[in-house]
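Subject: sequence -> structure tokens, single chain

Hey, anyone have a minute? Need the predicted structure for the following. Not urgent.
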Amino acid sequence: MSSPRQPVTLAQYRRRRTYALLALILVIWLISAGVNSLIATFAGGATPAPSHSQAAPNQPCGPGAIKVQAIVGDGTSPQLNFASGDNPKIWFTVNNVGSVSCTFNVGSSVQFFKITSGSETIWDSKQCDRSSDKDAIVTIKAGQTLTSPAGEWFRVYSSGTGCGAEQNQVTAGGSSYHLAVTVNGVISTDDPQFVLN
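Reply:
Had a minute. Here:
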């Protein structure tokens, strides 16, 4: 025969209630901490890792991000026919066709103009005096086009002695020529044909 239970005193009753309450608070805190941790994990994981199209600012322009266009004209607008005694002006534009800003060297040290007629190279800026050429690193925004200053071509051949006005004159009287330019390794597209009268 089992012994009769001892009556629970008021102090024991309160102590058990306190322990039960503390245990409940601990369970609630653990659940809350777990939920907050999950929320933080998912929120942090929602940030995408940088991709090639989300390059950091001041990162060099990648292959295919820059388009170069050669221009012949009067120094402000394109022109394809030049009257006798009218020297063509040559320049270029660089356009960031990428989706982010990037840096690109547009300095004279990396600019190379070439004028051809058929398969013959008539004038090449590599034969000019390039002793004062410099780099010029610029930031080009996505979609932005930059325009270089225009320079004058004196209707001359270039040679090992230079490319200035003192060189031999080219044939005019309706002769046609093409201008191409390379800027920092990027070759121009859609090179213009022009006529000297």
